[in-house]
Design a protein that fits this description.
This protein has helices at 12-23, 58-71, 133-136, 152-161, 181-188, 284-304, and strands spanning 3-8, 29-31, 45-46, 56-57, 75-77, 83-85, 91-95, 98-107, 111-113, 129-130, 144-148, 167-171, 193-196, 199-205, 212-217, 223-227, 230-233, 237-239, 270-272. With 306 residues, it is an alpha/beta fold. Bound molecules: NADP nicotinamide-adenine-dinucleotide phosphate (NAP).
Length: 306
């Protein structure tokens, strides 16, 4: 028998969809993915999720939302989806050699941080290389750091890291930032922040811990070594949509295309919620809101076929 609702992904969007679908008696099945709980699992304090005036740790928040989803009967498979076929109904969702069929599918696979892909980066991830200042900034008290990127995330990370670090250098590949003016002004006027323009990281240096980076100036081609204790990569995120290529309409950056204000995708009965379909807001609370919408959309589709 087909599942009525199959949810792929277990961040705030997927779990909220599960709460709503389960309470509507649709007995959702969730394939939670290997990165269970999503990006909040690698966050520390969450201070802007409504209902927690003293803040809550990201993993604790996800555990609570998960419990709430399970309380109403959500079944959870701890694995990754390997293939989907949305060309006919019921839809087919494969997890390795196991096939599931479903009348509606809600996709909430989120987005993942982009990495530079330079030597030393992967080896030293967690040992001075990070993509999350809120998670790891704390470990760099009185240290010197670089932040790579020129968007709002890079500005935000750099400003946040000044709480801990003695000096933060923003390394950007061009000669102007793409971030919003207010953020750029704050960065440029901050006494602890310096900017290295027109430069890229060629290598992250260090054996067991980061000791420095080699930087190449893109206009002069000159390569210099900079001693630092940490490298924060803030060059954007990529939506986790590899498995949906050729099945659903994706935009140029790979995000699932949904009409404004709706979670519908290019296939009727398949819905998308959270960062996988949202490159603008990218907040836990907006993802949760979209998860709720997706469950209501799926419920309506099952009732009326529209
Ligand atoms: P983004 O706007 O796409 O910026 C990515 C930055 O990384 C760009 O400056 C880009 O350089 C650089 N970059 C990309 N690939 C690189 C590479 N391989 N090597 C070196 N540099 C590289 O991403 P984002 O900053 O994560 O922001 C995403 C969205 O969220 C934006 O719409 C942003 O406004 C929003 N956001 C808002 C806030 C806020 O308002 N508080 C905070 C965070 C994010 P180029 O400029 O040369 O392309």
């Amino acid at each position: 028998m087909s599942e009525k609702v199959l949810i792929i992904g277990s961040g705030p969007a997927g779990l909220t969809a599960a709460i709503y679908a389960a309470r509507a008696g649709l007995e959702p099945l969730m394939v939670e993915g290997f990165e269970r709980g999503g990006q909040l699992m690698i966050t520390t304090d969450v201070e802007n999720y409504p209902g927690f005036p003293d803040g809550i740790m990201g993993p604790d928040l996800m555990e609570q939302i998960r419990k709430q989803a399970e309380r109403f009967g959500t079944r959870i498979i701890s694995s990754n989806v390997t293939e989907v076929d949305f060309s006919e109904r019921p839809f087919r969702v494969s997890v390795g050699s196991d096939d599931y069929t479903a009348d509606t599918v809600i996709i909430s696979t989120g987005a993942s941080a982009r990495w530079l892909g330079v030597p030393g980066e992967e080896k030293l991830r967690g040992f001075g290389v990070s993509a999350c200042a809120t998670c790891d900034g704390f470990f760099f008290r009185d240290k010197e750091l670089i932040v790579v990127g020129g968007g709002d995330s890079a500005m935000e990370e750099a400003l946040f890291l000044t709480k801990f670090a003695s000096k933060v250098t923003v390394v950007h590949r061009r000669d102007e930032f793409r971030a919003s003016k207010i953020m750029v002004d704050r960065v440029l006027n901050h006494p602890k922040i310096e900017v290295v323009w027109d430069s890229v990281v060629e290598e992250v240096l260090g054996d067991s811990l980061v000791t420095g980076v080699s930087l190449r100036n893109r206009t002069t081609d000159e390569v210099t070594r900079m001693d630092v204790d940490g490298v924060f990569v803030a060059i954007g995120h990529d939506p986790n949509t590899e498995v949906f290529k050729g099945q659903l309409e994706l935009d140029d950056a790979g995000y699932i295309v949904t009409p404004k204000g709706s979670t519908s995708t290019s296939v009727k009965g398949v819905y998308a919620a959270g960062d996988v379909a949202d490159r603008v807001y990218r907040q836990a609370v907006t993802a949760a809101g979209m998860g709720c919408q997706a469950a209501l959309d799926a419920e309506r589709f099952l009732e009326h076929g529209a």
